[in-house]
Amino acid sequence: MFTSEFDPVYCIEGGILQLKCTVYSETIDVHWFKGDMEIKENENMHIIWADKTHLITFKHAKVSDSGQYWIVAGKVQKQLEVTVQALFKRQLKNITIMEGLEACFECEVGKPYPGVWYKDGKELKSSSNIKIDAIQESVHKLTIFQTALDHKGKYEIKINDILSGADLDIKMSEHDRSIFLEAAKNGTAVRYNIRIILVGKQRVGKTCLLRRLMNEGIEGVESTDGINIEVKKCKINLQTKEWIFTKGNESPLNEYPNDQYADCGFWDFAGQKEFYATHQTFLSRNAIYLLVVDVSEDFVMHTYNNMIENQFDKTGEYIDFWLDNIHCYTVNGTDESMILTNDLLNPPVIIIGTGMDKVQVIHLLTNVYVEQKIKQNQTSEKDTGKTKEGFERFINNKLLREHPKGKHLRKLCFLSNTKPSKDKKEFQILRNDIFERAKEIPKWGDNLPIRWIFLEKEIDRLTDNKEFVISYDKAKDLASKCSFSLEEITLELDSFLKYEHEIGNLIFFEDIKSYIILEPKWLVDVFKCFVAPFQFQNQFINMNEWSRLQSTGHLPKMLIEKLFTKVQVLNLTEIEAFAFEERNEDKTLALQILKEKKAFALEIMEKFDIIVKPITAEKNEEYYMPCMIEASGVDEILDTINVRNGQCSRTSWFGLQFNFLPPAFFNHILVTFLSKYSLSIVGKGRLAIYRGIGVFDIEASNCQKLLVCLSENTVAMQVWQFEKRDGLCYHEIRKYLIKTVDILRQKYRISIIYQCFLKCPDKIPPGIGERIYINDVQKKAQHHCPELDFQTVKDLRRCWFEVCLKSLRKFTNSKCKT
């Protein structure tokens, strides 16, 4: 009867399920059964036949459609096994969370499909507080960065007409506090906290200024290696505005009552450009920034906007750079706490001009020189050299103009660290200004449960004993001792830790919560091990591994262990580890904890994209550190990969031009591409990763290579084709770049604006001139290129925007030589 085979049938839920058979004669009747029931047509299922072929089609397969089917033809019957696999490999799960914390719904499907999210039946879209993300359309995520009561409800995702849902329950912080009030019969306490961050070029006097503000001497100050925050804390009397500094055997700071004194912590950032990629870890919206400049240096020069990465050197360029960087933390129009008035934005910035003693000398000499020139009619009276007034004009009239970043500036302050006034009154005035600015910060005067204050004191006790990192389990034990609710201890502890993280008291990440960094200096010391200018790494100069790190970015395990020796608490012998971990019963456990802390340190650097494990053909697990690779030009890479051999064709450039691109942001973009595409291999096994550049193989034959590079506040891409294939289109890569940038903007809550552009293929790198912006495409049917005789806009768009008939997946078998 039957002329077809009956192999088992597999299908994904929601997909089309077809069961088929053929018989040897058109006159034979065929009936379909599932179990004992004959299958009849309905809205979701159709039965058709044509000639000798019989077909049953389920438009949207269900898991319940799985089972044994029987096909009966005359007196002959055949069995067919059908399996419909559930679309959702992981369903959404209910979430209960404290108000203000981050909530993340996540599900995984067995086959890539787009999804649509809903809350209480209404479709959701991404916003400044909600991120919708899909990893290769298999893992779908919805993240609410800061939950509020109105986020409570039913969340669903519809994928291929299949729904998965879960509930979000928000626990009010006030409710939790009321529980504490009943138990402790005490109440809440007001918490005042000031976080002050010093930024600016190296050797302009940041560390000296910090010492002056802390009422310390400036003898023996050296260039800061990393971020120096050690013992730079004080208290401020809220009534008298007096700053309290402790020395020697004086009472510790934690003995001062929190409702009468403000906590003040200083963060002294290194000025070397190599550290800028790590600074993003510590920058905060809830801080006051002291932007320190040496007014005796040249400042009427280019600004950062005209400079390629890491090539700005003049005072004006540094001021421009840091104001742009700080301005990224203002999400205009969406965060009212960042907008004070029409004229002011948070976070506040005070520009401090140091070196006034040198300016005064220069000014006197310049006046004599100018008077001579005036007599000779060679200059004007306005040309007075480097003066306080000239610096103010430069800041207000040239650097800031009408740019909104100028709304962060509260004051220009001028002083000399080396030759202060007799009573050092200028530093007291600056302290008063800092205190007044602190009142503008959103976190100023927060009401906290008293048990949170108790837990803060327990943490202070640990840091006083040099215990800078603790496990999450130990934090739970401490919280229990401080009367945290046993039923909701994890929820409240996470809320407490997130708050302390935001104000800079500790470092806590919910996605890697095995350990908590109680003293940020511990993480600073880890960063200093790995990310430091070469002048601070003299002990490694003759190491082959260090040379390879500089040239290739490769970070082998042996070098990691060597670099960890710079952190005292990660460089302990067995006996020292046992002594340090006094609470442990045996040395083996102490060493295991030490090993876990090293792994935790590496996890943190991975989280901030400082180190990465790129995808390679060999699928190895080696770390790389792109920010430590010596700079290479795109021209040099073109020659290394033999792109100019006459057999390689290049697409037009597609890029995003930003109004400002923070140093760490390109690292985030590059690492995202490293997790999606395999790096190309050049030379003798070297991965094609460079400082600000990555070259990827985007199909199996290695004949198609994708270049992603950074240039002048721009991220640009180009594809190199070593085998001519007409009609290929890379619109999916273009969309991936844009989607990546938008997700990163939401993840790090920074405000940066970009324009999409196209550029002729032969320009290396894609400079600002001769770009065609996407908004202008309709205006320009043709485009003249100085390097080429002629280019049409259609030629530039073709490989990035038009969906072509040929697919890259079809070309995966042949190999080519590059």
UniProtKB/TrEMBL annotation:
An example Gene Ontology CC term for this record: cytoplasm
InterPro entries per the UniProt record, alphabetical: Ig-like_dom (IPR007110), Ig-like_dom_sf (IPR036179), Ig-like_fold (IPR013783), Ig_I-set (IPR013098), Ig_sub (IPR003599), Obscurin/Obscurin-like_Reg (IPR052385), P-loop_NTPase (IPR027417), ROC (IPR020859)
Major location (coarse): cytoplasm
Keyword check for 4Fe-4S: no
Subcellular location: Cytoplasm
Domain Ig-like: 13-69
Ranges of residues in domain Roc: 187-441
Protein name according to UniProt: Roc domain-containing protein
Domain of life, per lineage: Eukaryota
SUPFAM superfamilies, sorted: Immunoglobulin, P-loop containing nucleoside triphosphate hydrolases
Repeat as UniProt keyword: yes
Gene Ontology MF, one: nucleotide binding
Keywords from the UniProt entry: Cytoplasm, Disulfide bond, Nucleotide-binding, Phosphoprotein, Repeat
